[in-house]
Amino acid sequence: MVRIKKYLAVLITIAAVFSLAACAGNKELSPGNEVSLGKTTFSFDKDTYNYALFPEYHIVPGDVLDVLFQIRTWVKKAEFRLAIDNEISVKFIYNSELNETQLVRPDGSITLPYLGEVKVIGKTVQELTKELKKRYSSILKNPELYVIVPEFRSAIKELKKDLHTAPRGLSRLVTVRPDGYVTFPMVGDIFVANRTIPEVAKELNAKYKDILPDLNCDLFLERHAGSVIYVVGQVRKPGAYKIVKPISIAEAMSLAGSYLSSAKLDSIIVVRKHEDKLIATRVDLKAALAMKEGSDFFYLKPDDIVYVPKTWISKAAEVARDISDIIFFRGWSLGFSWELHDAAPSSGY
């Protein structure tokens, strides 16, 4: 039944195209003839707009992300520096009673006889050995000692054990909350809304590197909440509609069950968020449907608002008033920059 209703909506829209073409008094489009119809969008997006695909995917609330962890212990490093949870042994050749084997504490220190607390994190074995010899020289005569690291992957081993015994193994699913944040394992909350997956992955890996240098993750989109446009005003089924690729206003009208007889098709308003402003433009859909020479089909992006009015609208304040519910729901500012595609109203049907 739902599919039948969708087909009916499409048929109504197609019928309207030919009705408008007849009303416009254009030359008849006979079988075999072709009319070239252009495509357009907002001026600030024309150079980068891909009419077949969205240029890049931006994460939205409700998306489910897959975090796939990798333990890169095979990657060769230029030098080894001591880190938290490394096991360090300090051995004295002639004073074995001073020998110590300890784990580096979370504060980056170990405790040694006579010296007390010694900061070791971030130092190479050679740097620590040189420092200890210097400090012990005031206590021991010609201190002969060396430093070894018998265990430097204890944290990684524990993490691998935890990950492999989890239901999804090395993978974790996380959901983008309504506030745009995601809680990632070990690093906590990161704001991801309206960012690309590579951008978030870069920040995430930087944070994991601070925790465990050998820990890396790949980020994937497991499920997307869907890109949404809003069609309101004089249409049969106003509301929010999911889209999976760029669509034109005419296609958006079809999703909304076509337009009502009271619709002012030569004064359709499209609102798009650009940087920190809302940009509104007027689109003459009537001319496009009538296949008038020089007319274009206007293409939409996710989060665009299509407003089909009853009357000609000349002020941004009128648009803000009529679509205020959507604007406030999206958390957008009411500051408009007004741009007109067709400043003069065309004649009626």
Quaternary:
single chain
Series of H and E elements: HEEEEEEHEHEEEHEEEHEEHEEHHE
Here the CATH topology of the largest domain equals: Outer membrane lipoprotein wza fold like
Number of domains: 3
Shape: rod-shaped
Distance between the termini: 33 Å
Tell me the major beta sheet: 6 strands, mixed
Distinct helical segment count: 8
Class per helix and strand makeup: alpha+beta
> Which CATH architecture of the largest domain would you pick?
Roll
Report the C-alpha radius of gyration, rounded: 32 Å
Q: State the helicity in percent bands.
A: 25-40%
Q: Give the percentage of residues in beta strands.
A: 25-35%
Mean pLDDT: 78
- Parts with pLDDT < 50 across at least 5 consecutive residues: 10-15, 17-27, 338-349
CATH superfamily caption of the largest domain = Outer membrane lipoprotein wza domain like
- Using DSSP, what is the number of strands? 18
- Give me the side-by-side strand order of the main sheet: 13-12-17-14-15-18
The top-level CATH class of the largest domain is: Alpha Beta
Topology:
Layout: H1 2-24, E1 38-40, E2 64-71, E3 87-92, E4 100-103, E5 109-112, E6 116-119, H2 125-136, E7 145-151, H3 154-165, E8 171-175, E9 181-184, E10 188-191, H4 197-211, E11 215-223, E12 227-233, E13 239-243, H5 249-255, E14 268-274, E15 277-283, H6 285-289, E16 296-298, E17 305-308, H7 316-322, H8 324-330, E18 336-340
Parallel strand pairs: 1-16, 12-17, 15-18
Antiparallel strand pairs: 2-8, 2-11, 3-4, 3-7, 5-6, 9-10, 12-13, 14-15, 14-17
Helix pairs in contact: 1-5
